[in-house]
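Below is how a single chain appears once it has passed through the pipeline. First comes the sequence as given, then the structure the pipeline wrote out for it. We keep one example in the README because the format questions we get most often are answered faster by looking than by reading.
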Amino acid sequence: MPSWTKTLDRLDRAYSDYSLRSYRSGFGRFANWCRSKRLPPLPATPASIARYVDDHTEALSPNTIRHRLAIIGTLHRLAGFADPTKDAEVKLAWRRARRAKPSRPRQALGLTTNLRDQLLDACSDDLMGLRDQVIVSVGFDTLCRRSELVSIAITDLSQREDGRLSVLVRRSKNDPDGAGRVAHLSTRTSELVAIWLRVVGDARGPLLRPVYRSAASPRHLQPLTVTRVLKKLALRASIADLAASISGHSLRVGAAQQLARDGVGAMTIMRVGGWKSQTTLARYIEHLDVDVWE
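Resulting structure:
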């Protein structure tokens, strides 16, 4: 029987570290369940996978189950087996799970300019506060996902003729080849980044860094840190009732909503944020409060 861990090793350098951790965790949980039922995880039969779905309908969300099925299918294909998740029995189990918990996708709270400014005002006056200001400002201006934001390197910055900075966002979820996109920073954000870089004192390395004892460590932040910083600032800004709805996606959502509110066209917003589909963008701005009547 093929080792699923060795099969997963073939994904190294073909996927991001975050994706690899997700694959190892997802298939690992499926393999543990198979072991408890004395069933082989690779290759698994459609009946086993359908049973796994049925057993986890109550505990897992439909999105999580769908993600697990995608991982199971990928591992089977890499190991040279037919994809058992395409079997009609598995599809029926998935439909049962989805119908058992009908729901709309939850949208992260959009941090539009008003809320963004409240977070900026809540930043402390020390080095960590300066770093937090850069996270909020650059995240908003670039419409970056949190993984993209923490991946920005100092060498990805370039100065425009008007003195403002541009950022090369090198890789994103829908850009597996790493072609990247260029995002432009506002004058205020450019000045803030310039101050941060003078304090950091490096010409290379990650832009955003952990801060320990009034010193910035030359290491990349973890994506989860972006979420923690936003929630921390929300609590400090006395908008604690909103903190639970804030995620690492909130800056991207809020910037898209703000651009739509300001009358920027959908195609321009898609280009600025790196979206490939108007349908995806529509989900980002669907909760925008728009009053069309005078």
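The longest helix spans residues 17-36.

See the next section for the split statistics.
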